[in-house]
Amino acid sequence: MKHFEQNESGVRSYCRSFPVIFKQAQGAELIAEDGTRYIDFLAGAGTLNYGHNHPVLKQALLDYIESDGLTHGLDMYSLAKQRFLETFNRIILKPRGMQEYLVQFTGPTGTNAVEAALKLARKVTGRNNIISFTNGFHGVSLGALATTGNEHHRGGAGVNLNDVSRMPYANYFGKDVSTIAMMEKLLEDPSSGVDKPAAVIVEVVQGEGGLNCASAQWLRGLEKLCRKHEMLLIVDDIQAGCGRTGSFFSFENMGIKPDMITLSKSLSGYGLPFAVVLLRPELDQWKPGEHNGTFRGNNHAFVTAAAAFEQFWQTDEFAQSVQRKGDRIRARMEQIAKRYSAHKLFVKGRGMMLGINCPDGESAAQVCEFSFENGLVIETSGAYSQVVKCLCPLIISEEQIDQAMDILDRAFADTFADKQVNKAS
Amino acid sequence: MKHFEQNESGVRSYCRSFPVIFKQAQGAELIAEDGTRYIDFLAGAGTLNYGHNHPVLKQALLDYIESDGLTHGLDMYSLAKQRFLETFNRIILKPRGMQEYLVQFTGPTGTNAVEAALKLARKVTGRNNIISFTNGFHGVSLGALATTGNEHHRGGAGVNLNDVSRMPYANYFGKDVSTIAMMEKLLEDPSSGVDKPAAVIVEVVQGEGGLNCASAQWLRGLEKLCRKHEMLLIVDDIQAGCGRTGSFFSFENMGIKPDMITLSKSLSGYGLPFAVVLLRPELDQWKPGEHNGTFRGNNHAFVTAAAAFEQFWQTDEFAQSVQRKGDRIRARMEQIAKRYSAHKLFVKGRGMMLGINCPDGESAAQVCEFSFENGLVIETSGAYSQVVKCLCPLIISEEQIDQAMDILDRAFADTFADKQVNKAS
Amino acid sequence: MKHFEQNESGVRSYCRSFPVIFKQAQGAELIAEDGTRYIDFLAGAGTLNYGHNHPVLKQALLDYIESDGLTHGLDMYSLAKQRFLETFNRIILKPRGMQEYLVQFTGPTGTNAVEAALKLARKVTGRNNIISFTNGFHGVSLGALATTGNEHHRGGAGVNLNDVSRMPYANYFGKDVSTIAMMEKLLEDPSSGVDKPAAVIVEVVQGEGGLNCASAQWLRGLEKLCRKHEMLLIVDDIQAGCGRTGSFFSFENMGIKPDMITLSKSLSGYGLPFAVVLLRPELDQWKPGEHNGTFRGNNHAFVTAAAAFEQFWQTDEFAQSVQRKGDRIRARMEQIAKRYSAHKLFVKGRGMMLGINCPDGESAAQVCEFSFENGLVIETSGAYSQVVKCLCPLIISEEQIDQAMDILDRAFADTFADKQVNKAS
Amino acid sequence: MKHFEQNESGVRSYCRSFPVIFKQAQGAELIAEDGTRYIDFLAGAGTLNYGHNHPVLKQALLDYIESDGLTHGLDMYSLAKQRFLETFNRIILKPRGMQEYLVQFTGPTGTNAVEAALKLARKVTGRNNIISFTNGFHGVSLGALATTGNEHHRGGAGVNLNDVSRMPYANYFGKDVSTIAMMEKLLEDPSSGVDKPAAVIVEVVQGEGGLNCASAQWLRGLEKLCRKHEMLLIVDDIQAGCGRTGSFFSFENMGIKPDMITLSKSLSGYGLPFAVVLLRPELDQWKPGEHNGTFRGNNHAFVTAAAAFEQFWQTDEFAQSVQRKGDRIRARMEQIAKRYSAHKLFVKGRGMMLGINCPDGESAAQVCEFSFENGLVIETSGAYSQVVKCLCPLIISEEQIDQAMDILDRAFADTFADKQVNKAS
Questions:
Q1: CB pairs below 8 Å between C and D: how many?
Q2: Which is more confidently placed, A66 or D341?
Q3: Runs of H (alpha helix) within D149-287
Q4: Is A47 in contact with A298 (CB distance < 8 Å)?
Q5: What is the pLDDT of residues D190-248, one digit of tens each?
Q6: Each residue of B68-108: pLDDT tens digit?
Q7: Which of chain B's residues have a Cβ under 8 Å away from the Cβ of C160?
Q8: Best CA proximity match to B298, nearest among B90, B27, B65
Q9: Which residues of B touch D162 (CB under 8 A)?
């Protein structure tokens, strides 16, 4: 451990919650140096939807490397990239009526995809302002950070974060207040002080923001507003996409058609750095190389991504299994929430992007700590880190789910069973 | 080719110069779909210092993948990361008296490392302004882009790029004008309008800016200025580092001690996305997770990076071979430049980061086009894309160098032999 | 007229509504070149609360000029300035329990006072963000303009207007929605994306914004929020202050104690350029000369301002007359609004800051045009210029009020009597 | 004095150097409460070119006030404004071939005129960036402050000052370095990082910056650069204009034709707040009211300004007297500078905008303090407040000049006669 303590910056964070050294990982399991196995309910913060080192993807990657396939090629054409484009179009986009979207390979991080989308939106519309939402998280490079809500991350900027108007997310002011109607009034009013935005950037489920969900109706209202005021609709599907909510895109069957979509995290399928922006063809007003980056051609990721599409998305089976497992997890969560209802626990999220809202960050942290000690890697999210977030690999078995939920059950018992109800909460 | 043309954004750029589909790559060679082999004088824009798919690194990576080593682990502790830290400290930092630098694992792209360094500099100093230089290139996410000089990239921002004061690089106004003295006057003068900067960010050799070189004297002057005005000195060694100039860091033996150093590109040794910021321990004022990112734990890259340190940097031999090969290339370049001296060609750069300055971008493009048709992948850089840039893998053989230089020789002949001298140039 | 048309910029605006050349003015009357007299229901947009060329103020000014009193003295001490400070403290501040407020003489325009207040708030708190409200108007120099809501004025900036979070004013979303509660949620939530503000800047009645009024309860809620989050409360009383609402300050008897107050417009009493910021002593962290300006010592304005304090504010009489006249005007307005209730006319405002809300800007403009043709100078305000605004001198006689209201009555009749009801409105 | 100390903000500054209360002023003299007379070598920081309370202007103002002439009229047409436009065009603009310039009446302060000019430049060109110069002073509202060089004033902003590129003024790096050539290189170079500016804003003599002068050649070079890069040329003639340098505009006979000119300070002739922007007709792309302000129709100032044009500018006589008096002052200054040449004193400035550069701010302050104690009001300027600045009314008599220079002579003797030469200086 001394190498980390002596040589790594104090900015490191997850390792503080899980102070062991991991050596291997398989499927839904992480294996520490000493052989201890942990069920992984963090899954790389949503990056490992198909689990760790999935054997099919692994074999595809090994074969590619063995054969000296092009590893790094800037944005040059490669067979691996061609295969990615072909499978992505055929297996993912076309069946969803989205085949006309163009793929921009950005730097291989979510924040870079967001930067690219914001730049393009401003360029195409000639406007500066971007609407982003309370509790939204879109990354921490300067352009993306301006759209991110979290003050912990914003505080790191060191300069003013500008050119963004913050709007309340769905249900931010409760079920009875339409935040769409609010935005509408602000956008209609020529004296509201809200400059006409280039775009709205929105997460369909706010992963870092605490698993807040937007309904189809809210999203359609948002899209309508976008059309009326000629703002582009950017769906940031970096955490909620790639199957996490039970469909490849989080907004499927919701009746909207985003102008741009950002994808990253689980896109490579193997945890390899990869990110893209999908964009409507008429928006593709980039000049060659205008947004560039050294690693926008990570061919290993192309290989595993294509393999993942073929493995998981040729039929509906995988999506259905996600729904089913999500229901299984949710049922157990609802039980827990009900049991400690005096503490106002409740379940949040959708598909396999679920969490239990605790009264505060301290109790949520206590749950996670107990869980880790008992073999479950799990983390919190939300404004107060108050949501215990279950973000396991989608390929997890039902046995593993049950095992993990048993640990979680005991963790909640340990935390809440004898706890005084906080009157103020 | 249709998949690219139909499904990829027009932002793609290198592929336009090299319109073939690559399938494999070995050492200093790229291999197209039809088996044609090209010598690679682009090397992933400086990412492939050890060549494509180096067998030792490849084996280390295959072994790691085979064994289900942790691929993606956020910023959790892993054996691979531990080994990276240990070898990096032992083989690279310690022998250079730099063992106290801490390593921050940022998002795995150069631009993200720059974003992190700028944020930390502003945070630590409580100042906003950053000095960056004419012709500097530091990436295209919003924070980094503000420090980048190129108007093509700046034009993509869509918003004002601020909080940066631009200063003239070494020799920008000719050999006789000390740009250090200029900066000094501007920084001393309380009414100059140049706000006290948090930091200076500088490349020792400007890769994208056209291979402009700063001398040791200039850098020491810059460091002195930094100390006097309590500005941090950030060396962006993303392109010039990792051996490119003949030593691991581009500033070795120059008598400076940067406050922060950004590394990326060739750091993984295998073309895998990876970036770090090195920082003096007293600057490590990050709160845990304040700058974060999904892929800051790319364990494959840790594995190949550690293997590369052990393979290439345990003795001086590799560094010496770079110097030697650099001399070999430079000698051929000088011949070419001399032959067409009527066109005012001249050689720029240092180590194996070399180029020939042409009178304009058109002739430089013609040289590259001819080269590609004859089996050499090579690109331009500089404000007018007027520098034909030789950025081959450092492990290239002397035979390959000679072969490549022969092609280049013919390319210059084809371009300049009968060309009218442009009187205006 | 040709001198204006040939030599003045097209930015001129009021003259377009009142295309005559004025030569003289007395009390509530403007006199054109040809002798035509107009009742003035515009009053210099709230600058002429004591009417044009009030004889007492006029004599004081004449005496001062005759005696070669200091006219311009930067921020040097002068007898006239001393008398201003003395009378202002004795007659205005002390009786209201506000004697500890310090006076900052800014450049002699409202926008400059706002600039100074915002700068000081940011300096004192070390924060950047400012909360300003929908439909707020605070001036058009760059710092103030960022807080102004109107897109017509914002569009003139030519650069991004930043460092301001826009919040909904009192009743912006209707009577049933507490915008204070909304702000509270956004400010409490560490992940809302609303950075902690240095200050809130608010008008108690929004003059340019269409005569929207904040209640005492709303203002107290706002002040409480300010205290809780350590934001300063700046009341911009430039238009609503100096007696316009029936008390010297618009917020008297509302139970709040602003940290800073901006005053201008009617402060000199004679239409002379003058502006100040009042500030709590503990906020006075200015360095000498840090905010400066050539005309911050307009001694003529000091003379007339002091005379106005003595003439109008030594007893309650004047304030009471304002209330009475306000009631008189409002009664007539209510009649008009009721008569054309099919068009959903309604009365807005407080004291002698009143207006009739028309269904659209076109009909309001028609009312004003008819009025001018019949001897009444009157203008519109509001997001759609839809409010016919009665902003007459406070010293107007009841006869003049009746005369003006008769004209207005006919103007509304002319505009609405036979007008189709706009179903869409 | 207690009213000031108890009730005025500590931002006050000039009064600290001249701690007496002034009651009257005539011509070149200020008269304190106790009857002490001071010769005024500050002249309202250049606002009182025609002296205090000039009898002819005074009579015109008294007559106007007596007759109830319109005092405040927003931007409505008035006889006084018409007369201003007519005399300004006939007496000032036409004889200088500048009759086509349009007049924009901005808020009545220099900083507001600068704000308007910058806004219009950005609006017309569609660019954000402005070039301003080292040691330039253009006001302290946020837009203007960004172009001002002084860190004391910039430090008051509380937010980042952006969208300005700072360039070295004429001779900033010594007589041998062409700062025009430097700017040219930066503007030509597409990778310099200096974004194409909307405009350049420049003072022909830098009043606050320490009386640095630009030559005709330098200005023509700057104009040429503006034309080539389609940047507008804005001359800020607020302090150097209205006769100060020996001609109405400071740039007369220099062979340039600015796109915009800002005037304020001495424009009204009587010390009354007044400012305008002059602009080429093709630039007048303002929408009505887009830049507005309550006091842009200060009719008292129109009256005295028109009277001043007629009194002083119908013949060449006044301008010639300025040159003559300037020479008289300069001769005495050169004597002083020579006498203490060991301290490297030297004379700076042009016309009647002159000063003696001292080795540091302390000695300059000592000179001013001694002078004030002996009946001369005089101040410093420059980056280090090191220039003793002679800015007396242009109507000063030769006797008063001699009297003042005698005092100054003694002040320098008192300060420097026995002073050790500062070796470091």
A1: 377
A2: A66
A3: 151-154, 179-188, 216-228
A4: no
A5: 999 999 999 999 999 999 999 999 999 999 999 999 999 999 999 999 999 999 999 99
A6: 999 999 999 999 999 999 999 999 999 999 999 999 999 99
A7: 159-160
A8: B65
A9: 160, 162-163
Task: Show the tokens assigned to A364.
Answer: 């949520």
Cβ atoms D235, D251 nearer than 8 A: yes
Residue B3 is nearest to which of A82, A115, A144, comparing CB atoms?
A: A82
DSSP assignment of A267-326, as one string?
Answer: GSSSS----EEEE-GGG--PPTTSS--TTTTBHHHHHHHHHHHHHHSSSSHHHHHHHHHH
Residues in B closer than 8 angstroms to D132, CB to CB, are: 193
Write out the residues of chain B at the interface with chain C, using a CB-CB cutoff of 8 A: 159-160
Q: What is the ipTM of this complex?
A: 0.97
pLDDT tens digits for range C14-31? 999 999 999 999 999 999
Task: Compute the distance between CA of residue A15 and CA of residue B76 in angstroms, rounded to an integer.
Answer: 4
Number of H helices, E strands in chain A: 14, 17
CATH number given to D57-312: 3.40.640.10
**Beta strands B22-26; B29-32: pairing state:** antiparallel
- The pLDDT tens digits for A13-70 are 999 999 999 999 999 999 999 999 999 999 999 999 999 999 999 999 999 999 999 9
Residues listed for chain A: 425
**Looking at the domain B2-54+316-424, which fold is it?**
Aspartate Aminotransferase, domain 1 (3.90.1150)
From chain B, the residues in CB contact with C159 under 8 A are: 160
Q: CA C346, C347, C349, C350 torsion: positive or negative?
A: negative
Cβ atoms of C221 and C180 within 8 Å: the answer is yes
D152: helix, strand or coil: helix
Contacts by D388-391, CB closer than 8 A, 24 or more apart: D388/D355, D388/D356, D388/D358, D388/D364, D389/D41, D389/D211, D389/D349, D389/D354, D389/D355, D390/D41, D390/D329, D390/D333, D390/D352, D390/D354, D390/D355, D391/D41, D391/D42, D391/D43, D391/D45, D391/D46, D391/D207, D391/D244, D391/D352, D391/D353
CA distances from D392 to B223, D52, D247, D311, D354 (A): 46, 11, 16, 19, 10
**What secondary structure letter does DSSP report for D336?**
H
Q: Is the pLDDT of residue B423 over 60?
A: no
Residue ranges of chain B assigned to CATH 3.90.1150.10: 2-54+316-424
Distance of CA D17 to the CA centre of its chain: 20
Q: How many CB atoms lie within 10 A of CB D275?
A: 32
Distance (Å) of CA B275 to CA A73, B101, B295, C370: 17, 15, 10, 71
Cut 0.95: pTM above it: yes
Averaged over C120-142, what is the pLDDT? 97
Residues of chain B with CATH 3.40.640.10: 57-312
CB contact under 8 A, D185 and B172: yes
Given a contact cutoff of 8 angstroms between Cβ atoms, the answer to whether C250 and C204 are in contact is yes
Pick the closest to residue A419 from A349, B159, A411, D69 (CA basis).
A411
Give the pLDDT of residue A425. 44
Statement: residue A422 has pLDDT above 80: no
Yes or no, beta carbons of D140 and C292 under 8 Å apart: yes
Show residues of chain A in contact with C197, CB under 8 Å. none
Between CA B392 and CA D38 the distance in angstroms is 77
- How far the first Cα of chain B sits from its last, in Å, is 39
The alpha-carbon gap from C204 to the nearest alpha carbon of chain A, in Å, equals 17
* B160: closest CA of chain C, how far (Å): 7
pLDDT at A421: 76
Chain B interface with D: residues with Cβ < 8 Å: 128, 132-136, 147-152, 154, 160-166, 168, 172-173, 177, 182, 185-186, 189-196, 209-210, 382-384
Quickly count: other Cβ atoms within 10 Å of residue A1's Cβ: 12
